[in-house]
Amino acid sequence: MKEEQSSLLLKSSSLFPPPQGVKLSYGTAGFRADASILKSAVYRVGILAALRSLKTQSVVGVMITASHNKVTDNGVKIVDPSGGMLSQEWEPFADQLVNAQTPETLLSIIRECVEKEKIPFDGVQSAEILLGRDTRPSGESLLEAAKHGISSIFGAIALDLGILTTPQLHWMVHARNKGMKATEPAYFEQISSSFRCLIDLIPNGTKVNKLDNRVVVDGADGVGGEKLLVLKNILTDLVNEVRNSGKDGGLLNDGVGADYVQKEKVVPRGFGSNDVGKRCASLDGDADRLVYFSVPSNSSSKIDLVDGDKMLSLFALFIKEQLNILTREGNKKSNNNFQAHLGVVQTAYANGASTDYLKQLGLEVIFTPTGVKHLHEKAAQFDIGIYFEANGHGTILFSESFLSWLEARNNELALVSEGSEQQKAALRLLSVSKLINQAVGDALSCLLLVEAILQHMDWSIHKWNELYQDLPSRQLKVKVVDRTAVVTTNAETVAVTPPGIQEAIDAETAKYPRGRCFIRPSGTEDVVRVYAEASTQEGADSLANSVAKLVDQFLGSGSSAR
Ligand SMILES: CC(=O)N[C@H]1[C@@H](OP(=O)(O)O)O[C@H](CO)[C@@H](O)[C@@H]1O
Ligand SMILES: [Mg+2]
């Protein structure tokens, strides 16, 4: 590393001293903490992003968001050239970099990484980083810190894209590296035109959302609400109303948003008994999660939740149907056949009833630890891989080889049987692959796909919800002295430490019919999470409470709270 580069790094890093006595770690989705202590971390992530871009000789992204967390929190994560999460191999380096106490240690860690990773670091190669942030008030100054980090690497360029949803930034990084247009209008154009294609391909052609039967969306008072209003202007018959759009002064994620709705199973602010029977949906604070819900007639605040597992089931059913049409009878004559391997990926938080349902459909179901980075990696191993977290974060990945086969098959069918059911099925799958975000779970594109499939099936939200009945479940958070004392294995379903806790959980679980329970340390909050399922709600609640007490006993003081 040249002398000028080293002194530039020493000088600029001295402007961003790390907070004393704080250790941050690159958790489930990057660094997250109270925004007031994040400047130094974000500055250093700027440096890291520039190094990653040099290493991969591609465009990378930096997103400043704390998603569903409270408005005073913020966070930062890197988007890899593929549009996915930062390669997990680089996470330890991110931790070291962010926790280095002095500019000199920081410099020596950078030097080590440059050497180990053989990063072309001569100031000749250039790095390019796309920057985005959500609507948090702290976002602007944190974004400036990221720019400082980037510009402390010679030849690195930062492109500030302003306020974006997290999936928009992922989509743009993916698009840029594929040589496609990576702008917000290009994003909206792609998702809205592929949505229109799906609608045009609805059997018998005619169904369009009746005006009084359009979805009502809770925007979590965040960036998703703002962007959905843009989409509403492009697809005028899509959404009935966007509430909590962030424009009317409501506080981000405060009694609103997908996380609140999914975990508390109550209506978000601004919804109530007037909404009985309507199809409602909720985005999270950075619009990478989506859940649906309806308000039952006997209640003003309780909801019937349609979560990520149900979305996964709906998508799986639709894709499977299209694949069946494409490969049935008349098709066998074609020399151009392909047995597409369709698989689904879930985490331990998936409702047990959803897993049973997916297996009944004949699908291969794989489990990974929590966090999209794990699910995405597994889903990418299928020709078509669908992954969802129960909280509504997920997408459908199509392999390059399947897509090229599909394009060729579609062209072949267009010649021999244009407009046939087979060709329509091919076109539907092609449209889904363009509509659904190939980089990461995306609430806006998932909303469009759900809306298109419900119209295709001519299903109400109730009919969709009846695909299977969720097993009653309960989630709790327990504050403990040191959550890292909990170490898990088997896709987080078994706690290896502290010793004896798993046996105690098993003994408790065995008391409940259809009981299932696990604990794990959160990667985004300073808590241990408890998840319990049982055949009744009382059972699930009581199992979760007993296990929360065990966590308290084994891990030291803290109060358990929902
Ligand atoms: C139970 C739960 O919902 N956990 C969420 C939450 O992670 P934790 O590590 O559980 O805090 O935030 C992650 C990032 O948004 C998301 O991927 C994950 O599913
Ligand atoms: Mg989110």
Automatic annotation (TrEMBL):
> Where, in this chain's numbering, is Mg(2+) bound?
S67, D284, D286, D288
Tell me the cofactors it needs: Mg(2+)
Q: List the source organism.
A: Theobroma cacao
Show where the Alpha-D-phosphohexomutase alpha/beta/alpha domain sits: 56-91, 124-177
Q: Which UniProt keywords apply?
A: Isomerase, Magnesium, Metal-binding
Query: GO MF terms on file?
Result: metal ion binding; phosphoacetylglucosamine mutase activity
Q: Does the keyword Amino-acid biosynthesis apply?
A: no
Which family, according to the similarity comment?
A: Belongs to the phosphohexose mutase family.
Q: What class of enzyme is it?
A: isomerase
**Cofactor, free-text remark:** Binds 1 Mg(2+) ion per subunit.
Q: Which residues bind substrate?
A: E389, A390, N391, R520, P521, S522, G523, T524, R529
Catalytic reaction list: N-acetyl-alpha-D-glucosamine 1-phosphate = N-acetyl-D-glucosamine 6-phosphate
- So, what pathway does this thing act in? Nucleotide-sugar biosynthesis; UDP-N-acetyl-alpha-D-glucosamine biosynthesis; N-acetyl-alpha-D-glucosamine 1-phosphate from alpha-D-glucosamine 6-phosphate (route I): step 2/2
Q: What does this protein do?
A: Interconverts GlcNAc-6-P and GlcNAc-1-P.
Q: What is this protein called?
A: Phosphoacetylglucosamine mutase
GO biological process entries: carbohydrate metabolic process; UDP-N-acetylglucosamine biosynthetic process
Q: What are the Phosphoacetylglucosamine mutase AMG1 domain coordinates in residue numbering?
A: 307-459
Q: Which InterPro entries match?
A: A-D-PHexomutase_a/b/a-I (IPR005844), A-D-PHexomutase_a/b/a-I/II/III (IPR016055), A-D-PHexomutase_C (IPR005843), A-D-PHexomutase_C_sf (IPR036900), AMG1_III (IPR049022), PAGM (IPR016657)
- Report the residue ranges that make up the Alpha-D-phosphohexomutase C-terminal domain in this protein: 489-549
Protein EC: 5.4.2.3
